[in-house]
Structure formats: C-alpha cells, structure tokens
Design goal:
The structure is a homodimer.
Chain A: H1 11-25, H2 32-39, H3 43-49, H4 53-71, H5 75-78, H6 82-99, H7 101-109, H8 115-140, H9 150-162, H10 164-167, H11 178-191
Helix pairs in contact in A: 1-2, 1-4, 1-7, 4-6, 4-7, 4-8, 6-7, 6-8, 6-11, 8-9
Protein name (chains A, B): TetR/AcrR family transcriptional regulator
Pfam families (chains A, B): TetR_C_24, TetR_N
GO molecular function, one term (chains A, B): transcription cis-regulatory region binding
C-alpha cells in the first residue's frame, strides 16, 4: 500500500521520480509498485498519466537522445573544419550529459531487453556513428594523428565522456564546475595532457 | 537440483565460473544456487572448495588488485621522470585490464554492500590515488599542461581506460589487438588526437 497523497503529478514531474528509481534499481529491477511507492501515489494514478513503465522509459531516454541529436544541428557542428566540428560536438556532449545527467545515465545503462531499450541503444549507436564520421572526416583532412584508428578513437572518446555519469555530480561538493570539466575533456582528447 | 557431474574443480577453476556469473548477474544478484547450476556441481561441493560466495568474490577481485598493484613495482613505474612513469603505468594498466578482463570488470562493478566489496573499492581508490600522485609529480615537473586539474585528469584517464571493459573483447572479431589499444590510450591521453 502507498501512503495516500493527492496526485499532483504531470507526466513530466512523474518522469523525474521514475528516472531516479530506474537509475537506482535498474530498469529491469523496477516494478510499478516501486514507482508507486517512490511517487507516493497509487499505481492506478500512475496509469492515469502513462501506459506503463516502458512509456516512462521511452520518455526518459527520448529526452537524452533528443538533447544529444540537437547538438548535431547547431551551427558549431555544421560549419568549419571537421576537427573543429568534432571538438565542438565533444564539448556540447559533455555539457548535455551534465545538464541532463539522470536521463543520459539511464540511456547509457539500458541493456536491450525490451523494444524501447533496443530502440534507445540503436539511437545511441547512431549518435556515436555521427561522431565517428566527423572524426573520420577530420582524419581525412590530415587534422588528426594517423596512428590512432578512428573507430578506436571514437570508443575511447566516448569512454572518457560517458565515464562522467559515474562521478560527476552538479552539487558544489562535486568539486568541479561544468565548464572546467568540458574544457578538460576537450583538451585531453585533442591536445593531450603533456605540456606543449 | 543440479545435474550430477563429477566435481573436478579446483578453487581456481571454480573461480572462472563464478566470475562469469558475477559479471552476468551482478554479485548481489548471484546466489549459491546460480553458482551451483553454472558449475554443474552441488552447493555442498562448492562449499568443499570455498566458504561461500564472498570468498569467491575476494579471490576474484584480489587477482585484479594484485595484478594492478604489481605494475607499480615494475622498474618502468619506479625510474625516470614522473611523466614517463605515469605513461608506463597507463599502458600497463590497459594491458592488465585486457589480460584479466573478467576480474577487472568485476572489480570495477563492485558496489560496496559487503565487507569484501568495500575493501575492494578501497584498494581500487588506493591504486587510483597512486596514479594521481604520479600525475601530480609530472605536473610539478612542468611536464603536464597546467590548465587541466590533476584530480580531473585522473578521473578522465581512468574513465577512458576503464571504459575498455564495456567493449574490448579479446577475440579476433573484437577488431582491435591489445597493443594497438594500449598505444591508442597512451597517445590520446598524453599527446591528444590532433595531428602534431
């Protein structure tokens, strides 16, 4: 039984609760009962807002996916040399990850057991592929070192960027501000840690 | 019930099975029953080899931890300028991660619910701290760029290195050989992707 509470949720505010629980328990490990308890409203109230937990997952990962793909339509991603575009996209990806932290965290953790999860993984791969294409174009321009394979560079770049979900926390206690983190990622990935 | 099978395990070979199941189901989600089924021997046969699943976890993460700490005693990690030592340790960490992939994967996934998990996380933090100290020494030598905070550099470096457990697979189908991967990590982290 849930504690009685007037249902003042919108699909949007309910999503905030659902994403937190999905990230804590894993999507597979979350039941409608868990969501009902966390939100403090009955399961039937939740069904009033959404068809079920898969719809909540779809809305949540869509938010992350839409924010990521929107980067590719920004002028910094569309104009200039490929190396500058890929640097721009890297910086903005870090910024989106920090701004939409719980949503991107969930996106990175989906495992492909349901149709929605498989769709999310597919869209994530498409985004990675768009970045890989930019890296390839930058390599073709002679702006990237030739001794690191582009596919491998893409994986390592995303490895570094995506690792932020494991430790970046927006609170002051987190230690690093967002701009400092975005700068560090771009500097390390493109210019390296070694002093010029 | 398990399928009857003669118990030809040693603690070592039983560990191989246990680590695979821990990585598949998560340590928390693995019961002695799961281990018994995967190994094809009875629970009491398992108890003949080890005191329980926590001992299997301890042996498994110890194998990863010992391999990582051993790097720090190698001459490449002890002699020369700090920047060369930290490059050496980075390369060797990638090599150990690839050589001991299931063990390091498990180490990186433990979450701190039991005494053994908390000990493993503590040892992992100690290793990260040793690498952070080397980076700090290299920065003090003027060999690392001053505009990336050392703590942040450590996190990003481990973010990149540790991401390998998500995609690196030793089979030919995996696409990249180990040396190529280790080279790419060191080049990207210290010299950056941009053409000299």
């Amino acid at each position: 039984m849930t504690t009685a509470r007037r249902d003042t949720y919108t699909p949007e505010t309910l999503l905030t609760v659902a994403v937190r629980i999905f990230n804590e328990r894993g999507y597979d490990g979350t039941s409608m009962e868990h969501l009902s308890r966390a939100a403090g409203i009955s399961k039937s109230s939740i069904y009033h807002h959404v068809a079920g937990k898969e719809e909540l997952l779809r809305r949540a990962v869509s938010r992350a996916i839409d924010a990521l793909f929107a980067i590719l339509d920004e002028s910094g991603a569309e104009r200039g040399r490929a190396v500058e575009r890929v640097e721009y996209v890297t910086r903005r990806t870090v910024e989106v990850l920090m701004a939409e932290l719980p949503y991107v965290t969930l996106l990175l953790r989906v495992r492909g057991n349901t149709k929605t999860e498989r769709w999310a993984m597919e869209r994530r791969r498409e985004f990675d592929q768009r970045v890989a294409d930019l890296l390839k174009a930058a390599a073709a321009d002679g702006d990237l070192r030739a001794d690191v394979d582009t596919r491998l560079a893409t994986r390592l770049l995303f490895g570094m960027v995506n690792s932020l979900v494991e430790w970046y926390r927006p609170q002051p206690g987190g230690g690093h501000d967002g701009e400092q983190v975005a700068d560090a990622v771009v500097r390390m990935a493109f210019d390296g840690l070694r002093a010029g």
